[in-house]
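User: Assemble these into one structure.

Assistant: Restating your components, then the assembled model:
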Amino acid sequence: MRDDPEAMSVPAPDLAAYPLTGRFLLGRGRDRMTAEQMRILEDSATEVKEYPARHHLVRRGEPVHMSMMLIDGYVSRYMDDREGYRQLVSVHIPGDFVDLHGFPTGRLDHDIGTLGPVKMALFDHRTLVGITEQHPQLTRFLWFATLTDAAMHREWIFRLGRLGADGRLAHFFCELNARLEMVGLAHGGTFELPLTQPDLAEACGLTGVHVNRTLRALREQGLLTFRNGHVEILDHAGLCSVAEFDSDYLYSDCGKWKPI
Amino acid sequence: MRDDPEAMSVPAPDLAAYPLTGRFLLGRGRDRMTAEQMRILEDSATEVKEYPARHHLVRRGEPVHMSMMLIDGYVSRYMDDREGYRQLVSVHIPGDFVDLHGFPTGRLDHDIGTLGPVKMALFDHRTLVGITEQHPQLTRFLWFATLTDAAMHREWIFRLGRLGADGRLAHFFCELNARLEMVGLAHGGTFELPLTQPDLAEACGLTGVHVNRTLRALREQGLLTFRNGHVEILDHAGLCSVAEFDSDYLYSDCGKWKPI
DNA sequence: CGGAGGTTTGAGAGGCGTCAACCTCCGTGG
DNA sequence: CCACGGAGGTTGACGCCTCTCAAACCTCCG
């Protein structure tokens, strides 16, 4: 099985043994974690919670004592400008440790809210301190997970600074497709994404109206369709080209490099 | 001395005892590090190197075995688009651990180059592994340092996604002023910054021509001047307002900036 | 059946990019 | 001493991309 390149690129999440954390780092180094480390992480979850769609989870500046791993659904992090317009700074998918960076820092510099309905595993920071005291290698994996977030932030900076509306949207879809494929939630360029056009606008630094026009353009070029939260990438190579997308920054383990 | 609020907000770097790492986390939690931790870090540096201005340090994708802390000078991290246009994703100042995130990840997803001439301390990754094995609290400080980078990335995303040209430039200067003050390299809104107008354009997602016009507008509004790499903020409150700048995200331990 | 939220389309305005010219400054070399 | 060249700064004209404002339509759901 492990020799089949297809199976390598889309490993099956082991959700039976690890129902909460089975997608953590899946596709980006989970296979270098030992069974013991995976077990320690799984058993460190303090509780499991569910929240409805469009629900506020954490507000900027609040002291935080828990960190959340996303099990099911989609979560976004965002900042509001003076007039209340919103800028998304990241979108999280199952397996992501949404606010693990609140552990070393003790508070968040932005807001967190659900997109669709979600299920999350909560980790008390005292438990995480215990992990850093006793399991340095697992600690480096957790650290690594926060750094992949930073890598995605950088790519978003590039996207907003250097691409036009079509490139920004194309890049956004390319990234989500690649990440969802790693955790087994996208297949052949098809996946669910509970976003509206105004949401896309907030992620890409555009207005809802212009997102609408640009989506039509992408559709008419035969690159992708997006309707009712359902994405279909029709021409992956073409979309990547418009997006100037190169998945290296996702640190996937089917890429060319290995961490540590 | 420590009771004087003025002195608290701009602590003097202890460069005599810690010539290499004396500005690390200065103003953002260094005072919570123990003397032993500061000593361990200082003594962990493998070597010290100097580089000229506009010198390439690390290329995207290269395996890295050392991480660099900036002692003197300015360094930038950037990504190039298909036509060779560049987007800066961060600017580093003395005390910054420039590519510490290359430690858990083993490679970089972007390029690093000097702006002016620099002096850097290099840390071998094997030494850093030793720190994570033996000094969990110091490890959390290092982790924290990489997360403040991520916080700045998020602010850059906001800046590019939601602000116009004037706001982007204003925000850029506000951030650098706040950070340089924390390490004692800016005083009363005045500091050196070895950048050209095209460099500013690459940091703010603009063109050099438009940066020129926008700088003139900011100057004519009495907000700031920028000439020959010398910045003078004339109206800090006004500049922050244009920038929608709030320094919370810098995790500084002296709270908001006090204008002169 | 009516309302709310999301999508689609149009018209007009403005911000920013592009192209181009000219300037100053400064180091180099004749 | 001046000629030269290159890099960066400054300004103008023009055009396109995206925003703003507005209205119609569509779909879902109470």
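The mean pLDDT of chain A is 92.
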